[in-house]
Amino acid sequence: MEFKTRTGVFFLLQILVIIASLSLASLNLFAPVFKTGFLRYNYIAYYLLGITWLLRIYRQIYSSIVGKPILKVNENYLYDLNNDITYDWKDVDSVDIKRSFLIINLKQPSVYLDKIGNSFRRFLIKLLFRPNTKSALFFIDLDIVEAEKSELVGIINDYRNQRIHIE
Predict the structure, then answer these.
(1) How far apart are CA 96 and CA 103, in angstroms?
(2) DSSP H/E element including 11
(3) Using CA atoms, how far apart are residues 128 and 135, in angstroms rounded to an integer?
(4) At 126, is the pLDDT very low, low, confident or very high (cuts 50, 70, 90)?
């Protein structure tokens, strides 16, 4: 089963922040308002802000423009396009929902550290990873998935239970 990207108000605000910060950076670089002092370098902060936000949501933007599903669930795996990672059901210990996140607890989380396709997220996860802890490093933001949360969790648990019964 495939789920599309939700294009809500928050997603549009993120795109607006990216456009505004990159526009302000370009404007301040080529036509600076402050010609002297420390504020003449404020375009660097705008560029960093815009690029950081773009690195956070570029897969979500791509998915919404092209029409690719942001989340795929079947009998064998759970694929998250936003983080570009495929979770095999045989490696998943449990799936929980906390607020608007789908928490995926893995049997061997260290195996999945190098499988994360989003380089920015992979860097952060490797930085925060501590072996033998129960912290939730693998999660899916359900606010970007076009589906009801309870319905989605039910579908995911059904596929996971099918895989457990097959093995």
Answers:
(1) 5
(2) helix 9-30
(3) 9
(4) confident
CA torsion angle 113 114 120 121 (round to 10): -30
Buried b (16+ CB within 10 A) or exposed e, 150-160: eebbeebeebb
Tokens of 21: 């910060």
Contacts 24+ apart (CB under 8 A), 134-137: 134/105, 136/98, 136/101, 136/103, 136/104, 136/105, 137/109
Helix (H, G, I), strand (E, B) or coil at 134: coil
Locus of tokens 């402050």: 34
Task: Give residue for tokens 């999660």.
Answer: 139
Which stretch of DSSP H or E encloses residue 123?
Answer: helix 119-128
Tell me the β-bridge partners of 104.
95
Q: What is the pTM of this model?
A: 0.78
Q: Which pLDDT tens digit goes with each residue over 48-67?
A: 999 999 988 888 999 999 99
